[in-house]
Design goal:
Layout (H helix, E strand, L loop, with lengths): L7 E5 L7 E5 L5 E6 L4 H17 L8 H5 L1 H10 L7
Parallel strand pairs: 1-3
Antiparallel strand pairs: 2-3
């Protein structure tokens, strides 16, 4: 896994079901944004999940976020954003 010096973590309160997201900085390292409304264990799990994407190179693959996250992600998206059902 990525060493703690290789990424930044920012805690922010997110609306809705979003647990975390990640952005690759200009230096090639990630900044992970974590929903500050989560409990400490969920925050750790969200960080682990997002860093896993970085470690696997998901940001540099031809896969879409829906391919990477799988069907479960798509189903959650449809649940919270009904207009996207079937997309």
């Amino acid at each position: 896994m990525t060493a703690p010096d290789d990424y930044n973590v920012i805690m922010l309160p997110f609306p809705g079901p979003i647990r975390a997201c990640v952005r690759i900085n200009g230096d090639g390292y990630p900044t992970v944004y974590i929903n500050d409304n989560l409990c400490p264990m969920a925050k750790r799990e969200a960080l682990r999940h997002e860093l896993g994407h970085f470690a696997r190179g998901d940001f540099y693959s031809h896969w879409t976020i829906y391919d990477v996250e799988g069907k479960k992600c798509h189903e959650k998206r449809s649940e919270y954003f009904p207009e996207t059902a079937g997309v």
